[in-house]
């Protein structure tokens, strides 16, 4: 059996929320908070969805297995999962899939962001046989066409792409994870619309990155000094995908709107993040998310994958649509956050 039947709709979720709130401040972690990395965990555990094959998404918590957890795009997320493990041990009735997505929503609100609607009932995979292939997460070194390829596959439109990119108000990049380095905004633990304001306002310049970064596929990034910052302070950064939002004729008007209207951004971000964490979740009449009816993605008969996720070959266990997707040569992506 590939799905553990440990899903739960009832339980003291308020206590889980309180316990998540209690661990957010951590002085020895990035900027004194683990909130941003919890948002990234929720994002990456959901952003593997493919609407054409009905595979991937927030159900399953497949990142517990090497085929997904070891994806270069998920580098650093082992820290987020470790931070949440004591809460899972304290509340064993909650699934990992529910805990990871709930933690991201709680963190957004705690850092000054909007309430994000969230529903319980996700199930966990009992093994990795249902994990999606690698290469489905965004690659920050790419441009607008790549963003559309990734996000259209999940069912998002241009406005939603720009709104969801606002998650870059939080956190920072790390050379040893994605190859990129630095924070997007001055206060990376405070949810705001500064990301859009800075994209529009600052004089962004290309900066060549180190050989270590280049080996991870990050050869350059955009940098600019924060307003009022001393010259010796580290600059702010933007990924090539971030800057593409103001280069693209369809994306740019939404950047301008969110830079000018914080309330509109909060409203749209709440809606799109709620949509994100529901990707791949198919609920029965009881509200519980199940997998057994997902015939389109051939989950019912998918055998165990090979030791090289996404590899093409006999007996690799990929559902047919997923195997065809891999044949397109989608690169193994790096972490976007």
TrEMBL record:
Q: Which residues form the Plant heme peroxidase family profile domain?
A: 77-290
List GO BP terms, alphabetically: cellular response to oxidative stress; hydrogen peroxide catabolic process; response to reactive oxygen species
Which UniProt keywords are listed? Heme, Iron, Metal-binding, Oxidoreductase, Peroxidase
Recall the GO molecular function terms of this protein's record. Answer: heme binding; metal ion binding; peroxidase activity
- For the region Disordered, give the residue spans: 298-337
Q: Is Heme one of the keywords UniProt gives this record?
A: yes
Domain of life here? Answer: Eukaryota
Q: What EC number(s) does this enzyme carry?
A: 1.11.1.-
Report the coiled-coil segments: none
Q: Which InterPro entries match?
A: Ccp1-like, Haem_peroxidase, Haem_peroxidase_sf, Peroxidase_I, Peroxidases_AS
Extent of Basic and acidic residues compositional bias: 298-307
Q: What does this protein do?
A: Destroys radicals which are normally produced within the cells and which are toxic to biological systems.
Family according to the record: Belongs to the peroxidase family. Cytochrome c peroxidase subfamily.
| Protein name (database record) | Peroxidase
The organism named in the record is Pseudomicrostroma glucosiphilum
Higher taxonomy:
Eukaryota, Fungi, Dikarya, Basidiomycota, Ustilaginomycotina
